Amino acid sequence: MRQRYRVVDLFCGAGGFSRGFAEEGFEIVLGVDNMRPVAEAFRLNFPHAKVLVEDVKLLHGEDIESLVGEVDVVIGGPPCEPFTSANPKRREDPLERLYTDPVGRLVLDFIRIVGDLRPKIFVMENVPALAEGPLKEALRKEFARVGYDNIYFNLLLAEDYGTPSHRLRLFISNIKLRPKRSRRRVVVIEAIGDLPPPTSIHDIPNHEYVPLSPRKERRIRRLRWGEALIRYMGAEGKVYYNYVRLHPYRLAPTVMGSSRFIHPFEDRMLTVREQARLMGFPDHHVFYGGRDLQYDEVGEAVPVPLARAIAKEVRRFLEKGVER
Question: Is residue 236's pLDDT more than 70?
Fold first, then answer.
C-alpha cells in the first residue's frame, strides 16, 4: 500500500494545487485561506481536511502542528499581484515588491511557516517575475535563514503536462522538479467540446449561462477566433487581452482570475465549468461563492494536471529519501 504523505496547503484557494496531490495519493490535512467563501470551496472539495480561515501573517507553525500534527509537504501560492507584469501598479524596485509591499511580504510568511514546520519538501508557486533581478538571491537568503540552504527555481509550462491552456509558472522548492512531459498537447475543443449547453438540464456544477448585455452580445458576434473585445496595458507597456474568442484547435491563453473567454462556436461567454476544464479540473471539483469569485478561484489555481505532475516528482523524492 502506498504511503499517505501529509500535505498542508497555504493560500489554498479552491484547491487546484491540492487536487493534483490528492489525485497522486497524498493526504491533504489542512488548507489555509483568508477568504471565507474560498475556504468553503476548499472544504467542499476536501471534506476530510482541516480548513483555517486565517490571515497567514497571523499564523504560526505551532498553530498548524497543534491542529494536524507533523506534515511531510508544504505547498502554496502566495498572491502574485505584487510581482506580475500584468499589474500596472506593481512597485518599480523588485526588492520593494518582496519587503515593502504588504501583499508581497506574504511570500516571506510562507517561508517563515516552512521554517517552523520543517517539512521534508516544500513547493511554492508564483509568477516567474518573483525571481526577477535581485529577488532570486534574496529568496535564497530567506530560505537559508530558516534552514533550507539548497533551493531550486523550477520554471514549468502547464501545457507540457496536459493542461489545455498556456501557463508559465515558477515553482520554488528544495528539490529539482523535472516532471515527465506529456506526449501531446490538449486543445480547447478537446477540453470543453463534450459539455452540454449551459441552458440544458444537467447535473454539472458551475455550468450556468452567463448573461450578456445586448450591446456586448452584438460585439461578440463579430469576433473571429483569437480576437478580443478588450485590450489593456500591464506593467512596462505590455499589452494584455480579455474576452478572447477561443480558437478551438489551439491552446487557450493563460486563465487568470480576471479572464473571460468567448466560446469558439457560440456567441456566449464560457461558463465557470468550461474555464475550469481549461485548467484541468475534474467536473466533481466545485467552486463556491458569487460567479466572479468562482472565476477567480479557477484562474488563481495551479492547473490540476501540472499539480499532479509535480506531486509525482515529490512522491518520487520522498520514497527515495530527501536531504535538506
Answer: no
**pLDDT one-digit tens code per residue, 112-142:** 999 999 999 999 999 999 999 999 999 999 9
Domains delineated in the chain? 6-185+302-320 (3.40.50.150), 188-299 (3.90.120.10)
Q: Please, which pLDDT band fits residue 292 given cuts at 50, 70 and 90?
A: very high
C-alpha pair distances (Å), 116 with each of 34, 60, 120, 121: 20, 7, 12, 13
- Taking alpha carbons only, the member of 312, 317, 316 closest to residue 23 is 312
| pTM > 0.85 | yes
Residues 107, 92: Cα–Cα separation, whole Å = 18
Q: What angle do CA 73, 38, 11 make, to 5 degrees?
A: 30
| DSSP-derived secondary structure for 177-196 | --PPPPSSPPPHHHHHTTSP
- Tell me which residues are annotated as active site: 80
Distance CA 177, CA 311 (A): 10
